[in-house]
Amino acid sequence: MTVNEKSNSTARWQYLDRIRKTKGPFNDDDYDTSEEVLSMHGTQKILVIGAGGLGCEILKDLAMSGFRDIHVIDMDTIDVSNLNRQFLFRKADVGKYKAEVAAKFVERRVKGVQITAHNCKIQDFEEDFYMQFQFVICGLDSIEARRWINATLVNMVDDENPDSLKPLIDGGTEGFKGQTRVIFPTITPCIECQLDLYAPRAAVPLCTLATIPRQPEHCIEWAHIMAWEQEKPFPTLDKDDPEHISWLYKKALARAEEFKIPGVTYALTQGVVKNIIPAIASTNAIIAASCCNEALKIATSAAPYMGMNETYMQYQGDESIYTNTFKYAKKEDCAVCGNLPKPLQVDPKWTLQELLDSFATNASAQLKKPSIRTEDKTLYMQFPPALEEQTRPNLEKKLKEDLGLEEKQEIAVTDPAFPALSFRFFLKFS
Ligand SMILES: [Zn+2]
């Protein structure tokens, strides 16, 4: 570094340095402001998961907070509809990998930062990959991916090795609302402990869809669920195929006209069918900023960070502005960090199929491809095909009468989305 470059660099970080060099009332007594400690900042290796709306903001904020060694994972490519808020992308980037383009953009703008892009799924990496990072920041819109990384980081903790504990900072937004969470795996409540905050949206009863639709969404769901099944215009529904969405849109529109319901549009059809939640650029900016502030505080101890006491910050911008930071309790029956089975309310007259289906909508399970066994018996396995075939007849059988399941009996449920986990439940008959 030349003298000139060095003075530029000093000028560039003077405000950040002032925060780090000034001991405040909340700092520990032994808070160290020596050059040696200060110069360590930025050398920590950080992993960002997601290079979309939140991820673009997070990468920029981390680089501007002095972090210099950042990795980013995202399997997605850039779509033209991303350009309004994912500000690291330009029209010429459409079709390219998000992680790669975002990394290059931030590297160009912030000298000295190195961002390594991984254009793949988080599930493609093993534990040793995650072990190299000091902490992980998630800017994801998928609950499943969050649950996966959460379970992986909790499983990685080895009491003998303090470096195996990787703090997880998780940001999420939905329209004008958002949240930031900080998790110290095994020590503080994990994402799975808070799963019921993501309860699947209450389904509209089929009879409403079939007989008395009241809202444009009901007409779209009718086209999606009932008209498609009856008419099967294409062998399988591809929610990304405009021709398929157009078919649903026309069906929904005709039905809406019949019931004099206004508001069915192509965009709404796409939104309902694909479950799209509107993304707002400024909400992303606020949540990403709060995630990166926590990252900076954890990395430098410059100020107390979330995680140890308060773990959860919620931001609501839909009615004026409201934020609240609170402590979320750890659950003893959490499938990831707890050690007790969860109660599961079931009707003993249910068939095994009905029990299986209930896991998708159960707020504390949310499993799409469950396999079930008791301590001594396999009730149903999705894989391998031979075992599936062998256990399939059980699907028709009633839980108590045919399968002999009892009140308080424990069952274990697995799902290919979370290969490391076994969800334990004990039955409560209603
Ligand atoms: Zn947990």
TrEMBL record:
It catalyses: ATP + [NEDD8 protein] + [E1 NEDD8-activating enzyme]-L-cysteine = AMP + diphosphate + [E1 NEDD8-activating enzyme]-S-[NEDD8 protein]-yl-L-cysteine. Pathway: Protein modification; protein neddylation. It comes from the Eukaryota. SUPFAM superfamilies: Activating enzymes of the ubiquitin-like proteins (SSF69572). CDD domains: Uba3_RUB. Catalytic subunit of the dimeric E1 enzyme, which activates NEDD8. This is NEDD8-activating enzyme E1 catalytic subunit. Keywords: ATP-binding, Ligase, Nucleotide-binding, Ubl conjugation pathway. One of its GO terms (biological process) is protein neddylation. One of its GO terms (cellular component) is cytoplasm.
